[in-house]
Every structure is written in structure tokens, then in C-alpha cells.
Amino acid sequence: MYLKKKSISIISLILLIAIAFVINYTYQNESNKVTGNKNQVTNTSQTEKSKSLNTSSTNTSSKALSGSLTSGLFASYREEREVNRSRSLDALKEIVNNKNTTKETRDQAQNQIIKLTEVTQKEMAIENLIKAKGFQDAVVLIDNDTANVIVQADKLSEQEVAQIQDIVTRQTGISIDNIKIMNRIN
Q1: Which among 50, 123, 131, 167 counts the fewest CB atoms within 10 Å?
Q2: Nearest 5°: CA angle at 184, between 169 and 86?
Q3: pLDDT at residue 33 in the model
Q4: CB of 181 closer than 8 Å to CB of 161
């Protein structure tokens, strides 16, 4: 029984490291896109000074920058979530690795590590399912029996809210009353 829990903990930690790697890789790519778009805007401003660019291309650049910054904001939310989760995992690992920890406390810490890993996987699955419904980006934060969802959209229709609630409920079992959905205006 103890070996089974230990194996589950090790597998969970490996999955968590893999997830952290993917998130870090995605965040770095998005940061590079934002930097690239800022350079593009700088070039656009210089070109406007020389009056060689027309107005329509400037509007396109502004929209691209706005979308990238919003995506950057969502990436920032994800990064903050991962930093907080990482701190929790580090604290739990210290408890698990401490020789003075009782078996009961160690077991509880290992269960918390497994729970955090499961929550992370659910959040990522929900975010991907929301994006599959046509939204540009989304961040999901699950804490105990509540879920907060931030969706990149100017506004949300009742049908879209119902779709998001359905996804969260199916993936987590959280009741609709405990799901908060917000939209982020571009």
C-alpha cells in the first residue's frame, strides 16, 4: 500500500514537472510574440512619422498588439497560478521529506500533492475545451468546490456562459452555483 502511494506520488511529480515545462515553454513563446509585436508597433510608429504607412495597416497592428497583450495577460494569470501552486508543492514536499513528519501527516501531504496535480490537469483540460469552443483564450482557477473562469471575449452570451458552465461541471463535478465566469475585454 505504501509503495503504491509512493509510486503515485512519483508519477504525479513527474507529470507536474512535465506540465510546468509545457506551461513555461508556452509562456516563453507568448512573451516572444509580445516582444515581436512591440517591435512591430515601434516600427509602425516610425513609419507613421515618415507618413509612408496607411491608416488601415496601423489599425491591424493595434488589434494584433491588443490581442497579444491580452494573451500576455492570460499567460500572466497562468504564471501566477503556477508560481503559487509550485510554492504549495514545495511546502508539501518538505513535509513528505522531513524525517520528523508522522506517517499520517506524510500521507496527507502526499494526498495533497496528488490533488494539486489532478486540479492542474483539470484546469488545463477545461482551458483547452473552452478554446475549442472558439474562444481565443481562457484561464481556469479551481479551489476546493469553486471554479473561476476568465475568458477572453468582449462579452458573453447566455449560451456561451451555459457552454462554459457545462464544460466545468462535466470536468470537475462542481455545481453551477459555484462557477464564476468573467470576460476580459480587449
Answers
A1: 50
A2: 65
A3: 56
A4: yes
DSSP strand pairing (146-152 vs 138-143): antiparallel
pLDDT cut 70: percent of the chain above it? 61
Burial, 76: exposed, middle or buried (Cβ in 10 Å; 0-12, 13-18, 19+)? middle
Helices 2-49 and 55-97 cross at an angle (nearest 10°) of 160
- Are 164 and 152 spatial neighbours (Cβ–Cβ below 8 Å)? no
Quick one: the chain helix, strand, coil %, rounded to 5?
75, 10, 15
Lowest mean per-residue pLDDT among 14-18, 57-61, 101-105, 108-112: 57-61
**How many Å is the maximal CA-CA distance in the chain?**
73
Q: At what angle do helices 103-132 and 55-97 cross, to 10 degrees?
A: 160
pLDDT at 73: 85
Closest CA to 129 of 68, 121, 27, 29: 121
